[in-house]
Design a protein that fits this description.
single chain, alpha/beta, Rossmann fold, seven-stranded parallel beta sheet, 9 helices, 7 strands, 44% helix, globular, binds nicotinamide-adenine-dinucleotide
Length: 286
């Protein structure tokens, strides 16, 4: 059975990358997709590219609580219900935590945490009240990251936001179960999207991808969306998506120290010990 056929799905961050690929896959599976993005024009282009009506695209800054609520209200007025909310919009800031400024922390908190909270606030009560369809009332799918499950030096602040998204998803899942509302978190490793393509280390003009070997072999957004929807279909709590994420998560659960060589290398590459940041160099705790 296809659980997406005829269902209504609201996808945030749908103009690009994983969100755009989710919109394509959901539309192909027969869902009515509302594509929401701060880049409203990009969302409209994406809607037209997948053969959906241009007016299924909306401009939405997920940091704006009342705007999110009004997009949800408009979606229900138009389609009668919301079966899936894909809280996918997100940003990344990468580099040495010593180089983070107040505004960097605030942006990450606003988009990656508050943006998800605003979606849950607007959609969860509505899902609880809407009619059961096929044995469930709704499914909230939050895009977290493998860095929401394991340590990610160089992505420290980003990882904090994704751990928050995982915590929210796992706890709400248990609370919402009794109402027939499902909650899942998608946890990919690095995916070849504009976010990954253009990411730069704080205070550095060289793209991260040029610093990390093997970056060119990243899985694409289409692959990520396909695997993510497979996990959603099976109502998995955590959906690690990629082989690297599956392996990293299993190793970390088995024995956290097993990942130390990887995290040390990540720290050296993405958060190098730079004297310019006022930190001592050449010292390392084992
Ligand atoms: N690409 C990766 O390696 C990777 C890995 C793990 C998790 N993720 C997560 O996947 C999600 C999608 O990332 P992506 O790689 O597709 O990135 P992307 O940059 O290609 O797409 C992100 C989209 O979110 C939109 N967006 C940004 N801020 C917004 C806001 N305030 N309101 C609404 N829309 C906003 C952007 O306009 C863009 O269209 C993010 O939550 C990201 O953290 C990405």
């Amino acid at each position: 059975m296809n659980p997406f056929e005829g269902r209504v799905a609201l996808v945030t961050g749908a103009a690009s990358g994983i969100g755009a690929a989710l919109a394509v896959a959901l539309h192909a599976a027969g869902a009515k997709v509302v594509l929401a993005d701060i880049d409203g024009e990009g969302a409209r282009r994406q809607a037209m590219a997948i053969g959906a009506d241009a007016d299924t695209a909306v401009t939405l800054d997920v940091t704006d609580r009342s705007l999110f609520a009004s997009v949800v209200t408009a979606t229900v007025e138009r389609h009668g219900r919301i079966d899936y909310l894909f809280n996918n919009a997100g940003i990344a800031i990468v580099g040495n935590t010593l180089a983070m400024e107040g505004n960097d922390w605030d942006r990450l908190l606003d988009v990656n945490i508050r943006g998800v909270v605003h979606g849950v606030e607007a959609v969860y009560p509505l899902m609880v009240k809407q009619q059961l369809l096929g044995g469930w009332r709704g499914h909230i799918v939050n895009t977290a990251s493998i860095s929401g499950l394991i340590p990610a030096p160089g992505f420290t602040a980003y990882a904090m936001t994704k751990h928050a998204v995982v915590g929210l998803s796992l706890s709400l899942r248990e609370e919402a179960r009794r109402y027939g509302v499902r909650v899942s978190a998608i946890c990919p490793s690095v995916i070849g999207t504009p976010m990954a393509e253009h990411a730069q280390l704080l205070g550095d003009s060289v793209p991260v991808k040029d610093k990390v070997q093997g970056f060119v072999r990243l899985p694409g957004a289409d692959y990520c969306a396909r695997k993510a929807l497979k996990g959603v279909r099976r109502n998995r709590a955590l959906i690690p998506v990629t082989p690297a994420a599956h392996i990293g998560w299993r190793l970390y659960r088995l024995w956290p120290g097993l990942l130390r060589p990887v995290t040390r290398r990540l720290a050296d590459t993405l958060a190098p010990m730079a004297a310019s940041l006022g930190a001592p160099t050449g010292q390392r705790e084992r």
